[in-house]
Amino acid sequence: MTIHAPLQSSLPANSPRYDLLNLYRRKGYRRAPVGMHFCPALEAEFRRRYPDFKGDYLDFFGAPYRIIYDPGFAWNFEEVWRVPGRDKVDWRRFYPEGFQHTVKFDGWGVAHEDNPDSKHMTRMHHPLANASTMADLESYPWPEFEKIDYSYLVPRVKDIHAKDLAVFVWAECTVWETSWYLRNMENLFVDMGTEDPMASFLLDKVTELACFRARQFAAAGADILGLGDDIGMQNTIMMSEDMYRTWIKPRLAKVIAAAKSVKPDILISYHSCGYVLPFIEDLIEAGVDVLNPVQPECMDFSEVHARFGDRLSFNGTLGTQHLMPFGTPQQVKEEVRRNLGMAGAKGGLFCCPTHILEPEVPWANIEAYVEACREFVA
Q: According to the model, what pLDDT value does residue 12 have?
């Protein structure tokens, strides 16, 4: 496998890709980047407002990156077909309880059931929830990612780079989340708490498969590898620090090392919603370059930046629970200016909404966010 040398020095100084990578490396930037993720309702609103625009909303607003989705990403139903034979597995045999609504299966065999009470979220069912022996885990039809022809990545990366945009690979649900999606969170916590060998097998298997995919994305030339597992809740961490350091941190570090062994300058963005302050030092030690997001309802950006801003960059800071749906356009602009100003001229903050923008977000607040970024002078 080819090991990539750093590419940044070969990029033109006016390249949006160069600017974003410089910002994340805290080496200064020309203009504040813009980025966001719309729910289906806001995508439809975008199309209603701009019916003649041929691109998507990232094109329209000038985002400096484009996303390539990992075939192993949960909810990535579009690319499941890339894993040979997944569509031929009889997944329903792992769900003797059946389903109330229509279901679709992701590449891991996790069932996603339509949720009539949600605009775009599903109810998950767990194919290994009833597993009781190691044999149950060993015989599970694990995705054979090594059978994928990953050559499809190279032209995608080249096409994005030809537009002077950064390639972001969305490979979240890296270790912990994929594992509990399979096993059920309560069951996996019990396995871990009792040091059941089933926990080690499951987490190691998911880690091994994540390492393999990380190497493919790095070899294809991705700029940013988006890993992540939700390990925080609104006001507290999801598990003890000791449990995290025993079970999750070493495995995350293996995935990061796998990517950087192929492309040493690849940036690692790590996603977790919620309060993760006690874990940030561990994330840095594991090799994380960017924390995504800093959720203001859960953590104070000024505190996080003061403690870690010399060693870590950040994404987010614009709350999607309160500010974006219920704030005024002026409040949105003020928060953008405040947070970008706090990060300073060296960069280190991609100021953007912390999560998907939901249907109740006023379009005026989206425009205010974009305008504030475009107006900001570092």
A: 60
Summarised one tens digit per residue, pLDDT across range 184-204 is 999 999 999 999 999 999 999
Within 10 A of 116 (CB to CB), how many other CB atoms are there?
Answer: 8
H or E segment at 216? helix 197-219
Number of helices followed by number of strands (H, E) in the chain: 15, 10
At 67, list the tokens.
């996303």
Phi first, then psi: what are they for 339, rounded to 5°? Answer: -70, -40
Distance, CA of 106 to CA of 127 (rounded, Å): 11
C-beta of residue 71 within 8 angstroms of C-beta of residue 173: no
Indicate whether this model's pTM tops 0.70: yes
- Tokens representing residue 329 in the block: 């356009």
For 213-347, strand residue ranges (E) read 224-228, 267-271, 290-294, 313-318
- Torsion angle of the four alpha carbons 229, 234, 239, 245, in this order, in degrees rounded to the nearest 10: 60
What the block records as the tokens of 299 is 């953590």
Number of domains in the chain: 1
Q: What is the pLDDT of residues 222-257, one digit of tens each?
A: 999 999 999 999 999 999 999 999 999 999 999 999
User: What domain range is 220 assigned to?
Assistant: 8-76+148-375
Q: Is residue 111 part of a domain?
A: no
Domain holding 234: CATH number? Answer: 3.20.20.210
Alpha-carbon distance of 305 to 325, in angstroms, equals: 25
Bridge-based pairing state of the strands 166-170 and 290-294: unpaired
